[in-house]
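During the reporting period the student researcher (J.K.) took over the structure-prediction task from the postdoctoral fellow and processed the backlog of single-chain submissions. One of the processed entries is reproduced below for the supervisory committee.
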Amino acid sequence: MSDHQPLSDNNAHGSSAEFSMLSDEPLLHTQPTYITVNNSRTIDQRNRWLSNPLVHWINRHQPSEAVVLGATAVMVGIGSGLSIWAFEHLIEFAHWLFFEQLGEVLAEQAFWLILFVPLIGGIIVGLIGQHLIGEERHHGVAGIMESVALAGGRLRYRRIPAKTAAAALSIGAGASVGPEDPSVQIGANLGSMFGQWLHLSDERVRALVAAGAAGGVAAAFNAPIAGIFFAVELILGELGSSAFGAVALSAVLSAVVTQAITGPEPAFHIPLYEFQSAWELPLYLGLGMLAGPISAAYIHLIYLAHDLFHHWDVQRWIKTGAAGLAVGIVAIWLPQVFGIGYTTIGSILNGTEYSFLLLILLLVAKLVLTPTSIAGGFYGGVFAPSLFLGATAGSAYGQFVAYLFPSLGITSPAFALVGMASVLAGTVRVPLTAVILLFEMTNDYRIILPLIFAVIVSMIISQRLERNSVYELGLARKGIRLERGRDVEVLEAITVEEVMDTTLSSLQESDTVEEAGKILMETKRHGMPVVNTQQQLMGIFTVQDLERGEEILKGRSEDTDTPLTVGMLCTRELLVAYPDETLGEALRRMGARDIGRLPVVARDNAMELVGVLRRTDLVRAYNIASARRMALRHKAQQVRLGEYSGVSVTEITITERAPCANQQVKDVSWPQESVIASIRRNERLMIPHGDTVLRAGDVIAVVADDGARKELERLCM
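J.K. obtained the following structure tokens:
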């Protein structure tokens, strides 16, 4: 029996299932795209969608795409503004509930209040996450990025009320997380909800998700322009006319609603600061060089903490309670790390004197507690903590340079302000958003020059230390690499190291021209690197050099005894490639000089030859790209399946010692609540049949509930 038979009722395993996928229309779907594992639910859901009176009205009157998208963006913008306002009030209510009502129970003993409030809040949030929300593939904005890139922007918006409540309780209880990521999720899910209700095409749903995200940022910071740039830089990654119109409309209306309710107040009240002289610019360069490593460390610590908590095999509420207890213990001595930290940021920006030591302690504490809070299970974001890190680091740096250069009249709050944008850009990799956000908060153009300078330096250094942003790293760890929200172009997705020739066939400096000619002929090479006796790269010898050498030999007199060596003729001023750079970068360098090969050297030692890159290696590059695109399509199918069905889709690699290895699908005792959706074997994607033999190395996508996941891991690993 073939391994490529379609899945039917006769060979399905676990619970009975029907997978339906209907095609997308350019603007509207009369029958929506969905996948479900329950037949009766499918019929009820389809009838409910088809009876939507708004969809009937649109189908009857057929308004233009611009009108439908614009009107929906208006609803998303207004809804985002109102929802973020309600979310902020929910945070205030949670804070009142924990610190005032619970404070009465604890007889207002500040020590016990600070210690136990995050512990109790953590237990409550953990129970909500365990019983009402369940496991999520990615935290926060990373899930939105994945959905926009792979699932047409279709999010599980029914979870957002529980997630909003959990985020409000997390922040209200003092967890070291921020409200901006939940605000973005609220707006994005609102956009996805409207898009799915109206049965819009994937392109339109993506635009509405980005519009909702822009509305969330605009409402959270009262900064509509920053919201627009955030959606374009991080969510969409590209600027389309229709999408940009929806994003701009939503962001502006969200900010208008926020200002109408709360007034035109910025997120922080900041005095005006001036860029005193050009002598300050090198100091802001130093601040950018400091912010970059802090950003990279912040990213690493988040995922280090995630791994530690992931391998702690206890109930979810215990993890969250433990994370809350850690926050409470530190907050006894450093209460500034409690919650969002906006009060502390505002104090720093308005010139309140914090000692240098206290600023360093707050920086370190926030670097540890935010990853602990997020990895432990609290709901919130990394956005506000990155601003806190930037403010404390910038203020401490400002005090240091003011001490070194007292004649410059340096004010540390100005460096705190620039530090906020620098760490934000280095962490999230949204430089335009960081610059515009700080500009909108200050309304002062005079600090824009050092601001841009420090932001760019910070982001470059952070990228050198950690390739991925805080959101992209979560996707990359699941095998999904996206650039600007889309699959990466072929040559930009592959590094030189993956395709270079490492056999290291080379010529010695002392080889004669005759010897070099024989070697080139035998190896059928047009050129080879030249090394010395210590195997250090000295140059490159090509067929053109060989021809030149032969001409020289012809013109020599016969009594000349001095041999003509490769070292005399080779090219010593070389263009080189590095193993960690992209193939696109290396090939552009080759094309600029019309070179057919580049020696590949170690990044830290230009004389250490590690390989050779040739244009013929492009064939291997496209094979690798083909395999990666197959893997990405496999991921996209999983994401869509999970979003449409509302159940978890788990990807598991079968190991050699797994109980199911070398077994037919029908012979494996799968958990009752599970279905194998697909199998990826090398570059082949297969739909499993009952007689399909599972092999070590196969990657299976399994639709399963949370209870079946551990049993699946036992069978496959």
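The committee noted the following: The first strand starts at residue 482 and ends at 483.
J.K. will present the remaining backlog at the next meeting.
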